[in-house]
Amino acid sequence: MKKKLLLTFLTVAFSIVLLVGCTTKQESTGGNEEKVVNVYTSRHYDADKELYKLFTEETGIKVNVVEGKDDELIERLDREGEDTEADVLIVADAGRLHRAKSQDLLQSVESEVLNKNVPENLRDKDNSWYGLTKRGRVIVYSKDRVNPSELSTYEDLTNPKWKGKILVRSSSNTYNQSLLASFIEINGEDKAKEWAKGLVDNMAREPEGNDRDQAKAVVAGEGDIAIMNTYYLGKLLNSSDPEEVKVGEQVSVFFPNQDTTGTHINISGAGVTKDANNKENAVKFIEFLSQEKAQSVFAEANYEYPVNPNVEPSELLKSWGEFKTQDISLNKLGENNKRAVEIFNEISWK
Ligand code: FE2
User: Which residue from 74, 66, 118, 79 is spatially nearest to 98, judged by alpha carbons?
Assistant: First the structure.
């Protein structure tokens, strides 16, 4: 009798263990009950949230979002290691995505959809990350004091005629590192270094502030020309602060190197994390964002260009005109980053 009771007890206990085991497994693999994708993103736009909702409606996959600053999200992913909840990382700049890949935080995926929607030069050569939006790093000039016919190339900004007139942020910023990395690729190290040195000689002030602050300094008369990313002009023109709108209205965009090597472009993009618990859902999520229906919404939320060649940019971006871009793979921005940082230090670009 005692034996039978013990046996019953053991059977029940064993069943509970089995049940618990199954439940845990189902959750971690995103089984039918609760399909999820956990996203770490540096983006914080309402339009993104609408898209996530649409994704959930279409696929039944719930999107959990953790927002943060680009570098902080990469650090967090690194710190959490294989315990991370994150399935997808979305950050700005190919140099940063390359860094996340180099730190072994991303995994390569196979996706015909992504290969079709994202041009080859805008994705990682090992499929660890994919560009989702595109921006140019351009010349923004004072409408009052600069005639665009005086402008031509990035190289020309080192001409003594621009002495004390150029505004650009610090070299510790990834955007400038990627810009110089592209010059290393296209013109070689020596010429890239010469350019950086020449630009420092023409600076209106020691680098300070972010991209938007350079446009503000142009309007304040500290200099005539700023180097900045295209979407910041969109942000200024659409700002809730009337002072910022005024700044946006007093400057204009010039796309450099149209007759030579093309304007420097960069991306914001996404990758599946190395330890993703929901890899399949993560791939579906990135695929969704690369598709025509999502691309214009996703890009427009931050005044960027879609990467999908079948999707047109917004009216504002179209009004700036089409432009020729550098003909290099953005993989090179990450690969040349270390040398770019060294050059900045050698020539003392603060
Ligand atoms: Fe930015």
Answer: 74
Residues 211, 218 contacting (CB under 8 angstroms): no
Please, which pLDDT band fits residue 344 given cuts at 50, 70 and 90? very high
- In the reported structure, the alpha carbon of residue 214 is separated from the centroid of ligand 1 by a whole-number distance in angstroms of 13
- Helices 279-290 and 292-300 cross at an angle (nearest 10°) of 80
Q: Are the beta carbons of 224 and 107 closer than 8 angstroms?
A: no
Task: Classify domain 34-134+266-313 by CATH number.
Answer: 3.40.190.10
Tell me what percent of the residues of the chain surpass a pLDDT of 70: 91
pLDDT at 12: 47
Locate the domains of the chain by residue range. Answer: 34-134+266-313, 135-264+323-346
Residue 318: both structure tokens together: 């179209």
Distance 211 CA to ligand 1 centre (A): 8
Centre of ligand 1 to C-alpha 309, Å, is: 22
30 CA to centre of ligand 1 in angstroms = 33
CATH topology agreement for domains 34-134+266-313 and 135-264+323-346: yes
pTM here?
Answer: 0.88
Specify whether the CB–CB gap between 137 and 129 falls below 8 A.
Answer: no
Owner of token pair 């935080």: 105
Q: Write out the E strands in 116-180.
A: 130-142, 166-167
Q: Quick one: CATH architecture of 135-264+323-346?
A: 3-Layer(aba) Sandwich (3.40)
